[in-house]
Design brief:
- By secondary structure, the protein is an all-alpha fold.
- The chain folds into two domains: about 35 residues; about 45 residues.
- The chain is about 80% helix and about 0% strand.
- The chain contains two helices and no strands.
- It is rod-shaped and about 125 Å long.
- The chain starts with a helix and ends in a 12-residue tail after the last helix.
- About 0% of the residues are buried.
Length: about 100
């Protein structure tokens, strides 16, 4: 019977040490901030910055589309001119 009590005592000791170690590690990490996630303010700041980035990307996309539309227009004009009559050459006036 004493062997059973010794075995039970060892198991209880191991359980107490394990739980105590786990709790002290968690408390230490919490105090030192290792388990701390981003704060609400940091998340709001990040969300605002991402929204600004999205708006900037949308603005850039609109401008690129405008540039490409202008390029297509210019290319079409140049193609139409090359098919038609040549452009008149400006005469220089001598003074």
């Amino acid at each position: 019977m004493s062997d059973v009590l010794q075995f039970a005592g060892v198991l209880i000791t191991i359980a107490i040490v394990t739980v105590g170690s786990y709790a002290s590690i968690r408390a230490t990490n919490k105090i030192w901030g290792k388990e701390k996630g981003p704060s609400r303010r940091e998340l709001d700041d990040l969300r605002e910055r991402l929204e600004q980035l999205q708006q900037s990307m949308d603005s850039v996309a609109v401008e690129v589309e405008r540039i490409s539309e202008g390029q297509r227009f210019t290319t079409r004009l140049l193609a139409e001119r090359s098919e038609g009559e040549p452009l008149p050459v400006a005469k220089s006036s001598s003074r």
